[in-house]
# Entry
Amino acid sequence: MGALTVVHPVTVFDYSDIQTAFRTMQNGLHTGKLVLKAREQSVIPALPHDAHPIKLNLDATYVLVGGLGGLGRGLAIYLADHGAKHLAFFSRTDHVQPAARKVLDRLKERSVEAKIYVCDVTDPMALKRAISQIGIEMPPMKGVIQGAMVLRDGLFENMSYENWSQVTAPKVQGSWNLHELMPQDLDFFIMLSSLAGILGNGGQSNYCAGNTYQDQLANYRRSLGLPGQVVDLGAIEGLGWFEENKENLKIAETMRNLIIGEEEFYALMKSAITGYSHGDNRVPTQIVTGIGSGGLNKANRAAGAHTDYYWLNKSPRMSYLRQLDLHSTLQAEEDDEMGELKGSLTAVTTLAQATNLIQNVVASKLAKSIMIAMDEIDINRPVSSYGVDSLVAAEMRSWCFRDLKADISIFELLSGNPITVLAEQIASRSALIPQGVERERAT
Ligand SMILES: NC(=O)c1ccc[n+]([C@@H]2O[C@H](COP(=O)([O-])OP(=O)(O)OC[C@H]3O[C@@H](n4cnc5c(N)ncnc54)[C@H](OP(=O)(O)O)[C@@H]3O)[C@@H](O)[C@H]2O)c1
# Structure
């Protein structure tokens, strides 16, 4: 009879490496035991609990206006994936393009009833007819996604009235007609609008106007106690008009990291349908995507873009977004900058060298505090000439004390002395400067 021995070797993986552990086991090439060990620092990939999953009603009809277009086709499958059994497509024509035919076939294979209603939503009579026909042929309507769009770009001064109306009509009259004629007891009423309405877009004044109308209609519906949601989409890759036309579009480098993919689009639509983003957070009436933030702008620049998200600097409305995600990046940068400066200051041999170093870092601190570009700071001007208020001055004072080890009063900071002189004052008092350095010019 043989003796049992302890299994060996024992290979220990941290919980953070759980994927590698399972892959190793899957390969079947290992011997011995694989052990997972949890430590306080372990980071475990986990799917967050979905507090508000989509619950579509099997016995309801969901209406997709312009639903045979790019986003509508994707949404039809998405709704079917989440339990929808009856879909009504509103289209101006019954001529079904191959891409739409494919989607209709896929829906049929999954036993989803999908009917096309020829209906121009800008025509209230046609819409009424479609709605009453659905009432006869399909289960009650419980949700609508309005994605009707026509594009006729051109400079405003050259735009014909016809081009103006063709573009605004599906979004303005079309959305209003849906608001008036669709049943009131819907679970959701979602309009697919565009970021162009928020930022403006040269050559698309008609489209922008139509989109801003939809933004306000959503607010109006909510004020009446009705469901109302608008999603202001930026460019989407993988499906929709942008995807189908991107070969012919000149995509600005500013947009590079702002384009969202299919998965992100569906995640947004899930929030629009359920009314919740993550956890128990309710989504606001208007969801905007692709607009960027200070942090994303920075990341885009770091990836080689030559221009900034100009719109973030264009309007005070953007001041929050301009700072969003930026703080942590700025803090890390500032820490690096200060670390380097401290090293250099301890090695100076003259007050002039220290002053030189400090005037640059004061200019940089000032630029960040009042959120302007560093090259807009002139070190021959006083700090006070940049409109610095007492709060910023107090912040700069404590920064001088903490990081430069120099006690400077708010009065000195806001005096009429140029930054060069202020830097000299700081240098002459800074405990970071070696003992032997002559400080005779201290004031
Ligand atoms: N794709 C993107 O990247 C993107 C970005 C920003 C915003 N959006 C918004 O998302 C929505 C959908 O975009 P998409 O990419 O799916 O566009 P799309 O492929 O051009 O689809 C829009 C559809 O609207 C239908 N339509 C136009 N006028 C209509 C009317 N009066 N009545 C009924 N249907 C009408 C058209 O279908 P018929 O010819 O069959 O009637 C067309 O196929 C639009 O509202 C757009 O503003 C999209």
Observations:
- The domain at 61-291 is CATH 3.40.50.720 (Rossmann fold).
- The chain has a mean pLDDT of 90.
